[in-house]
Amino acid sequence: MTGVTRRRNKIALGLGLALIATALFATPASAATTRAEYVGQADPICQAQQLQDRATFRAYKKSIKRYLKHHPNPDPDRPSKTVLRMAMRYYDRVLAIHRRADSELSSISPAPGDEGATAEWLQLRGASADLLERAIRAVRHNKIKPFIRLYLKSIRRSLQAEVPIRDFGFRYCSSPPDVL
Q1: Is it the case that residue 20 has pLDDT exceeding 90?
Q2: Whether 168 contacts 122, CB under 8 Å
Q3: Distance separating alpha carbons of residues 168 and 19, to the nearest angstrom
């Protein structure tokens, strides 16, 4: 690789990161006057959340594979403490990503007439995150069955969150998180 190519790659990477940061931390200049404006402001936040979720999952999967390569687990029903810690760290990161996205989404004023649906959507997203947080606490106390029960409730709640905004025309916000 030549020096010029490396420099171009660094510049492209920097621009890509700047675009993601702008999408993450951009605050709307004014309240949305139409549903399309609201979708235009909210969808980049959800898109950035999904990109971060996927990157976090890839890193988690890679670390688990590396660990299991050196420490095969004979009983998949009883994961080791290290595997549980890795899972907790992963879910902590996912939860932080979702909380940050929820905070940014709640700062956007919905279009007139959409306030109720938007509030219900955000409330259900928050409830899903709360259930995930409780599930993480269960894993911390080595309670796998409560974790699974709470985790599944969290997924159900995120699926319910789609209903109030189904007709908004979202591309990214209307689909539930794929790596919850």
Answers
A1: no
A2: no
A3: 25
Domain ranges of the chain: 3-165
Report whether 25 contacts 151 (CB < 8 A): no
Tokens 């979720």 correspond to 53
Q: In sequence order, what are the residues at sequence separation of 6 or more whose Cβ sits closer than 8 angstroms to the Cβ of residue 92?
A: 136
Query: 171 — phi, psi (to 5°)?
Result: -100, -40
Rounded to 10 degrees, what is the CA torsion of 85, 45, 152, 127? 100
- 3-class DSSP state for residue 47? helix
> CA-based Rg of the chain, rounded to a whole angstrom?
19
Instruction: State pLDDT tens for residues 113-123.
Output: 999 999 999 99
pTM to 2 decimals? 0.78
3-state class percentages of the chain: helix first, strand second, coil last, to nearest 5: 75, 0, 25
Top-confidence residue, 180 or 12: 180
DSSP 1: -
